[in-house]
Amino acid sequence: MSGPGGAFCSWPKVFLFGASITEYSFRKEGCWGTLLADYLQRKCDVIVRGFAGYTTWNGKQVLPHLLDAKLAKDVVAMTVLLGSNDANDKGRNPWEHVSLQEYENNLKEIVSYAVSQGISSDKIILITPPAFHIDQWAEFHGYLGYSDGGRKNELTSQYSQACLRVATEMGTKSVDIYTEMMKKEDFSEYLSDGLHLSSKGSHLLFELLKPIITQFTSHLPVVWFPFHDRVDVDNLEKSLLNSEN
């Protein structure tokens, strides 16, 4: 990164990678990415690389096209949130289903690739797939004649546990939103449609991520340029480009 008076300023980055819950993370409901970006104002850029419907198999194919060593050198934290689609029943939804063992292997490959580009494993956060609410999903899609579409919370639970196993084995951080959601008898308030996070669910995920992200970013300065009340109006260029804050 370059400070005041230097050339281009390259901000530290938090890299969010996953499927639809990541893609929608700047939406009104699924706003956990927005909350992170606001929390990290003038410290980090939050980069969202989410792809609705993707599984870990899709994810490991596209990640090399999204993350390279040049980008990785500025990444202070990376989240990986995949598994809700992998956890489809093979008989009902074979085009998205990824077996439990393959899911674990794919997650390991994703972590290994990120490490190979220069992101240390302890700066990677594996997030479990959120709990799935079958009745809410069926109600939300009822006008289309959908039922569970091959999704069951019992399957999601297995993939959630697999995600935590990979985190332990690979030395990454982990966030277990599945277990936190299941502490509530009616966890549907955390979901907008039975699968994707509501605003309340997004705030829950943000609060779970916050202490880890704080650990990674607390040493970072507020980025380079001075606060407005410290700008010398009589010498704008000097005060803007030669100030610590």
Q: What is the terminal-to-terminal distance? A: 15 Å
Low-pLDDT ranges = 1-5
Provide mean pLDDT, rounded. 89
> What structural class do helix, strand and pairing data support?
alpha/beta
Strand content: 5-15%
Protein name: Isoamyl acetate-hydrolyzing esterase 1 homolog
Organism: Biomphalaria glabrata
Pfam families: Lipase_GDSL_2
InterPro entries: Iah1-like, SGNH_hydro, SGNH_hydro_sf
Features:
single chain; alpha/beta; 245 residues; five-stranded parallel sheet; Isoamyl acetate-hydrolyzing esterase 1 homolog; SGNH_hydro
Tell me what the structure shows.
With 245 residues, the protein is of the alpha/beta class. The chain contains 10 helices and 5 strands; from the N terminus they run E-H-H-E-H-H-E-H-E-H-H-E-H-H-H. A 5-stranded parallel beta sheet has the order 2-1-3-4-5. The longest helix is centred in the last third of the chain and has 19 residues, at 199-217. Mean pLDDT is 89; it is low at 1-5. It holds the Pfam family Lipase_GDSL_2. This is Isoamyl acetate-hydrolyzing esterase 1 homolog. It comes from Biomphalaria glabrata (Bloodfluke planorb). Residues 16-202 form the SGNH hydrolase-type esterase domain.
Secondary structure layout:
Blueprint: E1 13-18, H1 20-23, H2 32-39, E2 45-50, H3 56-62, H4 69-72, E3 75-81, H5 100-116, E4 124-127, H6 134-140, H7 153-170, E5 173-175, H8 177-182, H9 199-217, H10 236-241
Parallel strand pairs: 1-2, 1-3, 3-4, 4-5
Helix pairs in contact: 2-9, 3-5, 5-7
Task: Summarize this structure briefly.
This protein is α/β, with parallel strands linked by helices.
